[in-house]
Amino acid sequence: MRSKSERIINEIVEFVNERYFSSGSVPTVREIGEAVGLDKSNVSRYLSEMQERGIVTRGGARGIETARMKKVREGVVYLPIVGEIACGSPILAEENIESYVSVSASFLGTGEHFVLRAHGDSMIGVGVNDGDHVIVRRQSVADEGQIVVAMVEGGECTLKRYFTDPKNRRIRLHPENPDMEDMYFDSVEVQGVAVKVIKNLGA
User: Fold this and answer.
1) Same domain for 96 and 192?
2) How far is it, in rounded angstroms, from Cα 155 to Cα 151?
3) To 10 degrees, what angle do helices 29-36 and 6-23 make?
């Protein structure tokens, strides 16, 4: 294969990066051709050589990835967003997942995480308002005072502060709202511990 124009190679890389970092999407072969003045077959030949040289990687119609894109993507994780949890169903059951959100891995720390869409005003005292997204580290145990997602009697999930009551052998779930009372249960199933809140700043 004859060596391709370095100028066009650079233009392709710049165009792919510009599109990806401005809109989050990867251009098609046709769109690349329109941007650099080549037909689809010639763009495909360029991309093949660029892949052989390690300038890009490819996979599918929109699977072009530049070195800059790869570096950014390696530090990103995609967390499932769950909303209202069906009674008794696993919190990450397919039917509960509304969409996904991309988050920097360094922002999270270790562990497996998911995002819960908050409902109601029981935790407004710690800044969790209705519609906010709470990042939760998945785990089955919690320390005193941590904010947890707990499955309680009846199979419903709730976001509350967790305390044990050894004397009465109960679990106390504390809402951070002075207008609400503590909830007591013989046992709860901890689904995870809240670690961060993504605020909804919409009007």
Assistant:
1) yes
2) 6
3) 120
**Cβ distance 148 to 160 under 8 Å?**
yes
DSSP letter assigned to residue 141: -
State if pTM tops 0.90: no
Q: How confident is the model at residue 172 (pLDDT cuts 50, 70, 90)?
A: very high
pLDDT > 90 in the chain, percent: 50
**Apex CA 177: angle with CA 152 and CA 103, to 5°?**
70
Mind telling me the catalytic residues? 122, 160
Structural domain of 32: 6-73
Average pLDDT estimate for 155-161: 88
Mention every residue, 6+ apart, whose C-beta is less than 8 A from residue 160: 122, 123, 147, 148, 150, 173, 174, 175, 183
| Residue whose token pair is 């990687």 | 57
Pairing of strands 189-198, 183-185: unpaired
**What's the CATH code of the domain at 88?**
2.10.109.10
Q: Is the pLDDT of residue 7 over 90?
A: yes
160 touches 149 (CB < 8 A): no
In this structure, the dihedral spanned by the alpha carbons of residues 69, 71, 75 and 80, taken in order and rounded to 10 degrees, is 20
